[in-house]
Structures are given as structure tokens and as C-alpha cells.
Amino acid sequence: MKHSKIFFVLCLPILMSVMPAYSWEPYDGIIAVVNDISIIESEIDNKFNQLLKFKNIPRRKYSAEKSKILDKFIEDALVMEAASEEAIVVGDRRVINQIEEMMKQFFSAQIQDNKKLDKLVKKLSGRLEKKINDEPLLEDKELDARIDSFTKFMENRFHISFQEYFEEIRSQIMREQVMSIAIGVSPPSKEEAMDWYRKNKNRLGDEVWVKHILIRPEGSSFTAERDANQKLTELRNRINAGESFDKVARTYSQDSGSAARGGDLGWQMLAEMDPYFAGFVNNLRIAGQLSTPFKSSQGYHIVKLMGRRQITFEKVERLIMFKLYNENMSEQFKKWVNRRKKESEIQIFMKNYMET
Fold first, then answer.
1. Whether 293 contacts 229, CB under 8 Å
2. Contact at 8 Å (CB) between 280 and 268?
3. How far apart are the C-alpha atoms of 102 and 124, rounded to whole Å?
4. What pLDDT digit, counting tens, does each position of 208-248 carry?
5. Residue 133 DSSP class
6. Residues of 170-207 as b/e, b for ≥16 C-beta within 10 angstroms?
7. Is a pLDDT exceeding 50 seen at residue 173?
8. pTM over 0.70
9. Which of 68, 93, 106, 287 is deepest in the core (most CB within 10 A)?
10. pLDDT value at residue 177
């Protein structure tokens, strides 16, 4: 025994000299366990830090906000477990199919022809799928620019990266699949949607008919931004001096979808537009009114208001059906989660956790 102690003492300096001087990293602990699924603390922290970028949260409410995030992770774990039991798998293509519908809404402002719009969206979704899977692609700057404008719009709208948004859609599809099997939630009828429209149509806002001219900055520098703004100011002055808006749009607008139509975007709901674009358009109240140059996620614009009208039922029927279905789904989902929690073994290790 003495010999082994002496050997250890003699070897200790040698071991210390050959061991690398590692700096120890904080241990990424498990913050909750849902049956056999572990939830990692860093995942909660990442979500919370992301939230702080877009929401002013007083320090006294940090625990409450983190608890809400953890509750969402617990719900997702319960859904994943139920999906596994039912052998439900949501592949990338299924998520892409849903994103295609959002692409159609986004690009419909630029392309009025439905056949051309469908063809473009198919190209874009196929290219997006390959990008997500890191597959080799031939260079196509025009398609990539369109994909970038769409993904930036979605990131600005939902305040998360597009990859996270992609996974949120996958999670939502999985949740709907689980709910349809576990509960069998049925879609609302047209009569229910019409009833909702009659009661709420005065709160839905207007449709607007606008024409626009788009100039994209040649780079991200201050000079490029200034030059684009200045170019539109010059074009606006020419229109105010008597030149035809349509002619100027056909000649100078960089929106390939609408330029040939004199910048005409047709009738649209404000909710269908880029939020920055919609904000400026909504300030125009008189037919024929011309905006000052402003910036959206696509570039710099000037807009001419052609008309406003109350939104028709046909325009919002799908949105109302979707809203009513989601509300019913959400209510049933809460009941399902509460029941599933009671049936599950859930351990929470978060300090100052506040159950919601």
C-alpha cells in the first residue's frame, strides 16, 4: 500500500505536465424529463435569448417567460411521443408543400398569372429543398434572389431563423396529425365561416389596389441605399411633373412581375403584403395619391393608390376557415395535453419554474 502511494506521488508531476490545460465548459444540464425524452437547458436559454431580441421583458418576468418556453417544449415532447406511437413521420417534402402555399401568397403580388406563379413556386420549392439538404445546385442568381427575399420576409415576420421556422412547421404538421388521430377535429362549415364574417367584417380592414415602382440597391452599403432612394425621388418628381406612372414603371421598375403591367399589383389585402410595404400603403387614402420613397424587405418603392374597398367574403373565406379550425384545434389540444400530462411522468428541474 505504501509503495502504491509513493508511486502515485512520484507520477503526479509527470501526469500534470503531460495533461493538456483544458478550460472547463459549463455543463449543459437536463432541465426537464418527459417520460423518456430529455429537454436540455441550453435549448430553453437559446429560445429565451432570441425572444429578448424582439420583446422587452422586465427581469422580474424572466422566470415566467422561461417557464412558458419550457411548457412548449414539454408539449412538443408529448406530441413527439404520440407521433412515435402512431408511426407518424413528417418529411422535408411535406413541410416544403406547406411552404409552397406561403410562397404563392408572397409572390402573387408580383405575378398575376396563376400558371406562371405555380411554375415559379415549383422551381423555388424544389431549389429550397435541395438547399436544405445541402445537395449540389447549378448557379441561378435570379431564383436564389427570390428565395432570399422570401426567407427574409418570413424571418422578419416571425422573428426566428428560416431553419427554425421550417422546424416549427414540421412540428405543427405533426401536432395536427396527432390531433386528427387522437381527437378527430373536423373543419368548420361554410355557414360558420359566413356567420363569423358578418359579425367581424368591419374589423377586417380594406383591400387596396396599388401600382408600384421597385428599385433594388446595388449592394448593402450606405451609398447603394442612398442611390436607390435618390433614383426613386427623381422618378417621383418626373411623375408629379406629368409623366405617366405606367410608362415610368415599365421602363425603370425592377419588379419583373409587375413592371410590364405598369407596376400594377391588383387588389390585395394589406395582410398579404410585406409588413413594411403594407404600413406605407395603408397611409394612402385618396385614389391617385403617390407615396414618398420607402424601403421594404425587397428594396425601395414608390406606390400609387388606385382604390380601396371593403374585403369581400370570397377573399377571406379560406383565412376564416383556417382561423376557426385552428381555434377549435387549439382548444382541443389544451385538453389533450392536460390529459396526457396526467398520464405521463414529467420531472422539471428549472429553478423558479412557474406552471402556466
1. yes
2. no
3. 12
4. 999 999 999 988 889 999 999 999 999 999 999 999 999 99
5. T
6. bbbbbbbbbbeebeebeebeeeebeebbeeeeeebeeb
7. yes
8. no
9. 106
10. 86
- 128/151 Cα distance (integer angstroms): 10
CB 70 within 8 A of CB 32: yes
**Dist CA 34 CA 349 (whole Å):** 12
214: cell is 421597385
The grid cell for 177 is 396529425
Q: What is the CATH number of domain 205-310?
A: 3.10.50.40
DSSP state of 352: T
By three-state DSSP, how is residue 31 classified? strand
* Contact partners, residue 290, CB within 8 Å, separation at least 6: 236, 239, 240, 245, 302, 303, 304
Q: How many CA atoms lie within 13 A of 183 on its CB side?
A: 20
Find all residues with CB under 8 Å of 131, minimum gap 6, and list them: 137, 147
The amino acid sitting at 347 is: Q
Query: How many angstroms separate the CA atoms of 139 and 127, rounded?
Result: 11
Dihedral sign, Cα of residue 16, residue 20, residue 23, residue 28: negative
The single-letter code of the amino acid at 124 is: L
215, 223 in Cβ contact below 8 A?
Answer: no
- For β-strands 346-348 and 264-269, DSSP reports them as unpaired
- Nine-digit cell string for 6: 509513493
Do residues 80 and 174 lie in contact, with contact meaning Cβ atoms separated by under 8 Å?
Answer: yes
DSSP 168-181: HHHHHHHHHHHHHH
pLDDT in tens, 181-203: 877 777 889 999 999 999 998 88
Helix or strand (DSSP H, E) at 349: none
